[in-house]
Design a protein that fits this description.
This protein is an all-alpha fold and about 260 residues long. It is built from 12 helices and no strands. Helix 1 packs parallel to helix 3, helix 5 packs antiparallel against helix 6 and helix 7 runs parallel beside helix 8.
Length: about 260
């Protein structure tokens, strides 16, 4: 049937984020056709919403979210319910709708039981969204002790990323730097440029504006800008940011930062 075939294509292309007009037409037709198995149809809708999030067609995602929510019941398969709530949380997260994102993360947390299929992945995805909001402790899905069920390196790295991102967003530089230190002790050979940027951001948040403590040339400009802002020298800070952006453009760098 059309829904099954389209779902297979969705799962195959979900990671690519490539807009294909003929495929979108097929998706539209599959939505209209529906399916007698409500769990399968809800699974298809969640995957389709994820696809629309990936290609930033949020209005279509919002429309499907309303349809899916009207079909979901407590009798729906656990995995279908969990994926539905996670998908809606991601949809709202990407649209900066923090309240609705948290509502769906709470619904997800309320049905998760440790040991269930994909429990770790659902929990880590929740942690990463909450970390992005700087509110990892808000709904009790975070423990300072790595859960014993996190047995793979990918799980543990995702755990650290969530904590460090959360600390950058809520200003808890002490815990963030502690987490980075613990990560490096655990994985001394794992060199991550993102980790260096996170460490530099946390140092700036702590008030460390010494250029010598920031080896990356781009962060030296960033630190100067922050120092000028801290002393009220707005124009000097703006000039420093302009220099930074010129460096990024000329060297084709990727840089994470928030500027005035």
């Amino acid at each position: 049937q059309l829904v099954e075939n389209t779902l297979r294509k969705l799962l195959h292309t979900l990671g690519k984020g490539q807009l294909n007009n003929s495929f979108l037409e097929e998706i539209d037709q599959a939505i209209i056709n529906g399916h007698p198995n409500s769990d399968l149809y809800l699974l298809f809708l969640s995957c389709t919403i994820n696809y629309f999030v990936l290609i930033k067609q949020y209005e279509k995602g919002n429309t499907l979210a309303s349809i899916a929510s009207s079909l979901l019941t407590i009798k729906s398969n656990f995995m279908v319910q969990a994926l539905h709530f996670q998908t809606l949380a991601k949809l709202h997260y990407e649209q900066n709708n923090e309240p609705e994102c948290k509502v769906n993360l709470i619904k997800l947390k309320n049905i998760l039981i440790e040991g269930q299929p994909r429990f770790n992945q659902f929990q880590l995805n929740s942690m990463n969204m909450l970390g992005g909001l700087g509110q990892l402790n808000e709904i009790g899905s975070y423990s300072e002790i790595i859960p014993k069920s996190y047995t793979t390196k990918n799980h543990i790295i995702s755990y650290f990323v969530a904590i460090i991102t959360n600390c950058i967003n809520n200003g808890d530089y002490s815990l963030g730097l502690k987490a980075i230190k613990e990560f490096r002790l655990r994985y001394p050979d794992d060199k991550k440029s993102e980790l260096e940027q996170s460490e530099a951001s946390l140092k700036v948040i702590s008030g460390d504006f010494k250029e010598s403590n920031h080896p990356d040339i781009l962060f030296k400009h960033y630190v100067k800008a922050c120092l000028f802002l801290s002393t009220g020298e707005i124009e000097a800070a703006r000039n420093q940011v302009n220099i930074l952006f010129s460096e990024i453009k000329s060297q084709n760098h990727y840089f994470i930062g928030n500027f005035p």
